[in-house]
Give the backbone structure.
Amino acid sequence: MNYTGDEVIKAFNIYAHLAKSGIADKESLLQVEADDHVRGLLDQFAAEVDCVVMGAGDRLMLVPLARLSPFHITNESLKRMYLRGNAVNADLYLMYVAIIVLIGAFYDSYQTTEATRNFLQMEEWMDLVQQRINGLKEHSAEELKALSQEYSYHWADIIEKWDAMDDVKETAKRQSGATISRVSFLDTVRRFMLDQELVKQVGPDELDLTEKTKMIVQRYFMGREYNRGILEFLYGLEPKRKEET
């Protein structure tokens, strides 16, 4: 397909804004919606860096699809920016699980793509994470080892990390430098999700999903080729436990 010079410049300018900040304004969104050639070029630019361009609300967003994308946030960056200096991969895996549980709380099951609630309280989020951890604990050490190989998540380490945290709702005054509570850990995850515009604060202790996250869920989050079956596994933990009691 042949493109005019004006179309190439328009698409590249939008891509440059997205590459710099991850978002582009309403004017860019309107340009993309009005011109299929600009849209096609923009999609090609994004694909070259393993990303996809999505519209959410009145903005465009650049979302990385692969770990090798230069726009992907590395594990080391996450440790340095949000976790403690001595954080290990198990801390990151627990962080990922907490994010999956939070997002999943807004949907009826891992097969739905429309949110069914308007907010989630921090306390309920912690209870939901605990439910998933309890479900993991019902597997034997041998089963957890096999599941770790299947899903590339070290489930036993995740359980150990969560259990090692103090479940007392500590105040900032009581929190020591050597101890991290489950409340403070989830607050760290909350800050990361706020920074990445995955959630928004709608009350002193309440979070809601952003349009960005809802779009990601609709297009990719529930797809097995992207989540590698981890969602199906985690969502199956609690129902399985109830059926066996």
In short: The CA atoms of residues 51 and 64 lie 4 Å apart. The two ends are 61 Å apart (CA to CA). The first helix runs from residue 5 to 21. The chain has twelve helices and six strands.
